[in-house]
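Example record used in the benchmark description.
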Amino acid sequence: MEIQSYKDLIVWQKSVDLVVAVYEVTEFYPKTEIYGLTSQSRRSAVSIPANIAEGRRLGSKKEFRQFLVIAFGSGAELESHIAVAKKLSFGKNLDFSKVNSLLDEVMRMLNTMIKNLQSNS
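Model output (structure tokens):
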């Protein structure tokens, strides 16, 4: 199957699923976190598919790779936000399994793509 659009990329599709999962779990964060962990987690999650899409649209492999690196950084930021939430009292009773699974998968895919684009440059 030929890739026509960023929407055809499995990593983009999975990262959109990740955004939905992050929104779902952060719905259960306390309202006092609306400008803290809730906002930061959602922003870093949304940044992943947005950077994949932007990089893919720009055309060159070099630019695409750079945007994948940015998406990977946003994934690392999200990992940190989730780690903090899990340690806080409100997070101890939340189910992060879907977020963890999708985030791990997206990060592995991004890492592979970044390495492949580096070696093809």
